[in-house]
Write a structure and sequence with these properties.
By secondary structure, the protein is α/β, with parallel strands linked by helices. Helices cover 28% and strands 23% of the residues. It contains 10 helices and 12 strands. The protein has helices at residues 68-75, 98-107, 115-118, 125-135, 141-154, 171-183, 201-218, 229-232, 253-258, 263-270, and strands at residues 19-32, 37-52, 57-61, 83-88, 91-92, 108-111, 189-193, 221-226, 238-243, 246-252, 324-327, 330-332. An 8-stranded mixed β-sheet has the order 6-7-8-3-9-10-12-11, with helices on both faces. Strands 2-1-4-5 form a 4-stranded antiparallel β-sheet. Strand 9 (238-243) and strand 10 (246-252) form a beta hairpin. Helix 4 packs across helix 5 and helix 4 (125-135) runs parallel beside helix 6. The relative contact order is 0.15. The mean pLDDT is 89.
Length: 343
């Protein structure tokens, strides 16, 4: 049984990855005393590895505080990693200066959770969407005006909306503006940080359909961050389940829902309300997720999930499990799949 981190999928073996993340770490120092000496650290991201391919949607799910947003910000070069490596389109981001990062940032754009707070309320829509073009000195004024019109049409907004302010739009329309702004530079990767959580359910579906259409038309890769497994069931190609800075399970969307292997994944799936469906291969039992997530500055010994796990046994409190390749491209961090320690 292999203990190597999850990297590729069988379908993608002959294709070059757009994004390669290896053993990524992001720690925040904890200081105390008069001289603010470091007395510990919060391991927000603790040794995460994955690949993302052109045209693929990779979802990272988990509870609040698990490190998924920190991971997204680090991948988007908005924060410097503490350790590990990030290679985007063949270039190692960690080796680039701020000046050298500018063309990389053109190719990696972010859509944030709350569209109202991500749009400048004092600027008209036309100025908001054109801002990336101005920052990167792309096109003449006339060409930028034309590009703004094209982008609004691409996200199904009337062109005349460019004269409005964000406050005059609904939440769904604001998020479409944010997506239009992210597309302005023709990026290869969109990082979607909870892109629908601030929207009504009916609007969520429309935004997801818009993202799916844009992906088909432009070959975009998506890294989507969410706490909602049901949202990404039919949207993501692969899903990584994160807990206290680490992946607990990584598999294709179908495999994860049909055959969840980590007890934490089972508990997350159990929390999803479902209608009785005869075609479901896996029907989650009612499993309560016990207690709250531990303090990431002082994680439990052994497996970080063991205090809340419904399948815990003695070794779980002593041994930190590796990331086991249990089935073809299905990786799990759990001692249940370690022959040397399983009871």
């Amino acid at each position: 049984m292999s203990e190597e981190p999850a990297m590729t999928t069988p379908v993608r073996e002959q294709e070059s990855a757009l994004l390669e993340v290896r053993d990524l770490e992001k720690y925040y120092p904890i200081t105390a005393g008069l001289f603010r000496r470091q007395v510990g650290s919060v391991r927000a991201v603790d040794g995460v590895s994955f690949d993302l391919y052109p045209g693929e949607t990779f979802a990272i799910v988990g509870e609040s505080g698990c490190g998924k947003t920190t991971l997204a910000k680090t991948v988007a070069a908005l924060q410097e990693p503490t350790g590990g490596s990030i290679v985007f389109d063949g270039r190692s981001i960690g080796e680039l200066s701020n000046r050298e990062l500018k063309p990389v940032r053109r190719q990696v754009q972010v859509v944030y959770q709350d569209p109202a707070s991500s749009l400048n309320p004092r600027k008209r829509i036309k100025a908001i969407v054109a801002e990336p073009l101005i920052v990167h000195d792309i096109g003449t004024k006339a060409e930028r005006r034309e590009r703004v019109d094209e982008l609004l049409e691409q996200v199904d907004l009337p062109v005349e909306y460019k004269y409005r302010y964000p406050g005059g739009l609904s939440g769904g329309q604001q998020q479409r503006v944010a997506i239009a702004r992210a597309l302005a530079l023709n990026p290869k990767l969109l990082v979607l940080d909870e892109p629908t959580s601030a929207l009504d359910v009916s609007v969520q579906a429309k935004v997801i359909k818009l993202l799916e259409r844009l992906q088909r038309e432009y070959g975009l890769a998506y890294l989507i961050i969410t706490h909602d497994l049901s949202l990404v069931k039919n949207f993501a190609d692969r899903i990584g389940v994160m807990y206290l800075g680490k992946f607990m399970e990584l598999a294709s969307s179908d495999d994860l829902f049909d055959n969840p292997m980590n007890p934490y994944t089972e508990q997350l799936l159990s929390a999803i309300p479902i209608v009785d469906d005869e075609e479901l291969k896996y029907k989650p039992a009612e499993i309560s997720l016990k207690g709250e997530a531990p303090d990431p500055s002082s994680p439990p010994s052994g497996c970080s999930f063991h205090p809340r796990c419904h399948k815990v046994f003695d070794a779980c409190s002593k041994i930190d499990p590796a990331f086991y390749d249990v089935e073809s491209d299905h990786h799990v961090r759990c001692l249940l799949y370690d022959d040397d320690h399983r009871e």
